[in-house]
Amino acid sequence: MRIIPTSQEERGEPWRTCLPPFDPELAAALKAINQVMPPGLTPEQTVPARQSPAMQMMADTDATMDGAFDTEDRTVPGPEGASDISLLICRPTAPAADRLRPVIYFTHGGGMVVGRNRVGVELPLAWARELGAIVVSVEYRLAPEHPYPAPVEDVYAGLLWTVEHAEELGGDPERIVTAGTSAGGALTAALGLLLRDRKGPWPVGQMLLCAMLDDHNDTPSTHQMAGLGVFGRTFNETGWTALLGERRGGPDVSPYAAPARAEDLAGLPPTFMDVGSADTLRDEVVTFASRIWQSGGAAELHVWPGGFHSFTGFAPEATLSRSARVVQVDWLRRLLAQ
């Protein structure tokens, strides 16, 4: 029986031999991805990464999905005293049914420091195409230029606008699901806590996909996957430090910044969580789901064997990615049918 080291001092190079295997198909995709996107991102590399060809390629996605959606970029009021924010609104071109459409409110990833509202939007659009839903993707201010609470307050302001204007868009304000990937998963989880504590509005559910939740960056999976995948321990530290500065890992971090810090996870909307077994963030995702159950809440958790961070977005045609999308859509369909 192998004993897992419990302190940073006990963790040495032998720890690197305890790696969960990558799915073979994903491993081949990852090899190609790492040629243009290494797993580490230092603070000095943040601005160049925003302007990199890889980031531009991810932002140049066809948000119409070959004509399945009409798209609009709309500027809406941001938080009080802050600048306006941009929402990408994607509405199905197919005729609507007799009732207002569900709305998926999406927050993009990027480690808190890179990305925009078109990055990663292919995933919620794939769900929406099957469900006849509207997608609203929010652009939030990035750290370190805009540290906490700027990003989560932007996401909150965008949701308030979406709820207030849902019917204008053809959407149902009573059937809004919040969703986010990686840093967007963190902001979605933080948004859920804010909405609970600010007494609404109430989403019908939230989807936290490979979510950044814990600023400590010290779980076994962060050490196991250091230097591997597309989002390693260095990138995780860069993101949290950009958001929190010297407070990162200390005693004075708000749960609205790092949701793992929340002492009480009761009262959250039904939650879907998934993560790969070979993801830096695996352990904090699993722990968060367990704590929702311990608080009496509803959560569905999937740990995909051999999946690296955000594998569904980076390798959408892989068999494991297809399986994950089926499960995600099934959860949404069951949720929205209620």
Structural key phrases:
disordered N terminus, 8 strands, globular, 17% strand, 338 residues
**Major sheet: arrangement of strands:** 1-2-4-3-5-6-7-8
Unreliable stretches covering 5 or more consecutive residues: 1-11
Report the total helices. 11
* Fraction in helix: 25-40%
Strand content: 15-25%
Mean pLDDT, nearest integer? 93
Order of helices and strands: HHHEEEHEHEHEHHEHEHH
How would you describe the shape? globular
Describe the sheet with the most strands. 8 strands, mixed
> Helix/strand/pairing class, anyone?
alpha/beta
What Rg, in angstroms, do the CA atoms define?
19 Å
Tally the beta strands. 8
How is this structure best described in words?
- This protein is an alpha/beta fold.
- Helix content is 34%, strand content 17%.
- The protein has helices at 24-33, 46-50, 53-59, 122-131, 150-165, 183-197, 220-224, 233-244, 282-294, 311-314, 319-336, and strands at residues 69-76, 85-92, 101-107, 134-138, 171-181, 205-209, 271-276, 299-304.
- It has an 8-stranded mixed sheet, with helices on both faces.
- Strand 7 (271-276), helix 9 and strand 8 form a beta-alpha-beta unit.
- Helix 4 (122-131) crosses helix 11 (319-336) and helix 5 crosses helix 6 (183-197).
- The longest helix is centred in the last third of the chain and has 18 residues, at 319-336.
- The radius of gyration is 19 Å and the shape is globular.
- Residues 1-11 have low confidence and may be disordered.
